[in-house]
Design brief:
The complex is a heterodimer of chains A (about 400) and B (about 150). Chain A is built from 14 helices and 17 strands. Chain A has helices at about 5-10, 35-50, 60-80, 95-110, 130-135, 155-160, 185-190, 210-215, 240-245, 280-295, 300-315, 345-355, 365-370, 390-405, and strands spanning about 20, 20-25, 25, 90, 115-120, 140-145, 165-170, 195-200, 220-225, 235-240, 255-260, 265, 320-325, 335-340, 355, 360, 375-380. In chain A, the strands form five sheets. In chain A, strands 4-10-9-8-7-5-6 form a seven-stranded mixed sheet, with helices on both faces. In chain A, strands 13-14-17-16 form a four-stranded antiparallel sheet, with helices on one face. In chain A, a hairpin with a 2-residue loop joins strand 1 (about 20) and strand 2. In chain A, helix 2 (about 35-50) runs antiparallel to helix 10 (about 280-295) and helix 3 packs across helix 10 (about 280-295). Chain A is globular. Chain B is α+β, with helices and mostly antiparallel strands and about 150 residues long. Chain B has a four-stranded mixed sheet. Classes of the chains: A alpha/beta (about 400), B alpha+beta (about 150). The interface of A and B includes residues 342, 343, 345, 353 and 360 of A.
């Protein structure tokens, strides 16, 4: 069966809206993805016909809501290759997932003088929580270098690993450059040395099949809103023995076994990490997004995006003065670029006038921008609903930009 | 496209390409950094203020978009020779211009060349770009060595 992008576009109501009188060309899915009707319908149906709080009521409505919520956990576990649904913790987003690990596993297992290794290409969400942890407990943050193409320098990374290294955290796919890191190779290197790994999968899950068991990581974090689900639902995957050993994150209802004023015992995972009423409807919507993606097939989505990436990269070379930042061989469909003498913000404004949505700025990766020698870039990111015509419109609008600023 | 020409007027494009007073002021007695945390734009504002409170010289350095660079360039030309009180009044007028509703007539009285920034009113996301240098100037003139942020 061929990949029918036109029929996929019809599943996304946003493409019926117009921007400045022009059709919407949405090239900012790396920031957040648009939502298929199936997700909107699932949430509306849940609120309209099945809503109640979960894990609480003895009445049928609450029992059913609980079953639906827990079913999503099972579906997500299957979707990412997690051997046990209890390894799937629902959080708000990848940022919260990483902070959860830093605040629990990090506080408990990492001590003054211990080392945490990250890479230059990390999103602020995979830098700042570790910096904050290091500030609190005297640990040391070390950063693996990348080359001019935006490829991780694995030799340098290995040279940073020592007896005090307790944790290695890195992105599977760079949000700003698109670089795909060799996750399995890195987790093998870490495991041989007894180092715990956390993979930021925020930019990988929407674009390619993910199997956490095959990746061999200890923790895997991602956001539902980048995977065509609603904002407010994200996932932390952790290996069960690690999760069991971790102290709770937030205290409150739903995460306890028994509470008295003398002390509290905590619920087993995953409830231990899900204090308070979660964003139930967003989790339900996220489940619908997973079903939607499985109905298309992640392999086919990846192939579609790789073909778009090759086409757009080739066409962008026609724009005078355009330079692509991030030229790794293994890349997701993210293209960061700069235009000679035109600031990314001005590019963004001109493109907006043409109905084209791109990201302009530092992409929450300021240290990476500094390494690549640019204050900011413009970034076009492609997704399952993008077409070659989108890439053509981008190129035309960039030609226009060059003309205005000539 | 018409809207865009309204925003990117010839004067703005010219000052973006050839920013005036774009240098470090060696004998500055006031200085402040301006940062737009949202986009990473950064500029440093240098001023020499006379004992009787007049801006004798003002220059800037940094990186930013066309709007922020042209705004800094035109601003430095505009406030040179003015008293601190006059500059403060200019800041208010400029701020009112770029933040007023696009459906009302633009009040450009007393703003001279700076009236080219009226087009920014149509682009709320770009108001901070236009006002970054003004915030930095105010910080430089108020207290020395402050970092001005638009957030």
């Amino acid at each position: 069966m061929s990949f029918d992008v036109e029929s996929i576009r019809k599943d996304f109501p946003i493409f019926e809206t117009r921007m400045h009188g022009k059709p919407l060309t949405y090239l900012d899915s790396a920031a957040s993805a648009q939502k298929p009707r199936a997700v909107l319908d699932a949430m509306s149906d849940f609120y309209g016909s099945h809503y109640a709080n979960i894990h609480r009521g003895v009445y049928q409505l609450s029992a059913e809501a609980t079953i639906r919520y827990e079913e999503v956990r099972e579906r997500v576990a299957r979707f990412i290759g997690a051997p046990d649904p209890r390894e799937v913790i629902f959080v708000r987003n990848a940022t919260e997932a990483i902070n959860l690990v830093a605040r629990t596993h990090g506080e408990q297992e990492i001590e003054a003088g211990d080392e945490i290794v990250i890479t230059t290409m990390e999103h602020h969400a995979n830098i700042v929580p570790w910096q904050m942890l290091a500030e609190r407990n005297g640990a040391v943050l070390r950063v693996a270098e990348i080359d001019d193409d935006g490829v991780l320098d694995i030799d340098h990374l290995v040279s940073l690993l020592g007896p005090r290294t307790k944790l290695l955290a890195f992105a599977e796919v760079s949000n700003a450059l698109g670089t795909i890191n060799p996750v399995r190779r890195l987790t093998d290197i870490a495991r041989e040395r007894g180092i715990v790994t956390l993979v930021d999968g925020a930019q990988a899950v929407p674009h390619q099949p993910v199997d956490v068991a095959a990746l061999g990581c200890d923790f895997y974090a991602f956001s539902g809103h980048k995977v065509f689900g609603p904002s407010g639902a994200g996932v932390l995957h952790g290996r069960l023995p690690l999760l069991d050993a971790m102290p709770p994150f937030l205290g409150g209802g739903d995460m306890i076994e028994s509470v008295s004023f003398e002390g509290t015992t905590f619920a087993p995972v995953p409830q231990k990490f899900e204090a308070g009423t979660p964003d139930i409807a967003s989790v339900i919507g996220f489940g619908a997004a997973v079903d939607y993606l499985e109905s298309i097939g992640m392999d086919r989505i990846a192939a579609h995006e790789q073909s778009l990436l090759a086409y757009a990269t080739e066409r962008l070379a026609e724009v005078p003065g355009l330079r692509i930042v991030g030229t790794a061989k293994e890349k997701a469909a993210v293209i960061s670029f700069v235009l000679e003498d035109v600031h990314p913000h001005d590019i963004g404004t001109v493109l907006d006038g043409e109905g084209i949505a791109i990201r302009a700025g530092h992409h929450c990766a300021q240290p990476l921008m500094k390494r690549m020698g640019v204050p900011a870039t413009a970034r076009a990111s492609f997704s399952l609903y993008n077409t070659r015509a989108d890439a053509d419109r981008l190129v035309d609008a960039l030609q226009k930009t060059v003309e205005i600023f000539r | 496209m018409d809207d865009l020409r309204e925003l990117y007027q010839a004067t703005i494009l010219d000052h973006n390409k050839k920013p005036r007073n774009f240098r470090v002021l060696e004998d500055a007695n006031r200085e402040a950094d301006g940062r737009n945390p949202l986009c990473g734009d950064e500029l440093t504002l240098y001023a020499r203020v006379s004992d009787d409170g007049r801006v004798e010289e003002v220059t800037f350095q940094g990186t930013g978009c066309a709007i922020s660079k042209a705004s800094a360039s035109l601003m430095t030309d505009f406030v040179k020779g003015k008293t601190l009180a006059e500059v403060e009044a200019d800041f208010d007028r400029f701020h009112r211009l770029v933040t007023s509703s696009p459906s009302t007539p633009a009040e450009t009285d007393g703003l001279g060349k700076l009236e080219v920034f009226a087009g920014v009113r149509e682009y709320p996301m770009r108001v901070k770009c236009a006002s970054l240098s003004w915030h930095a100037l105010r910080a430089a003139l108020d207290d020395e060595g402050q970092v001005a942020k638009t957030e």
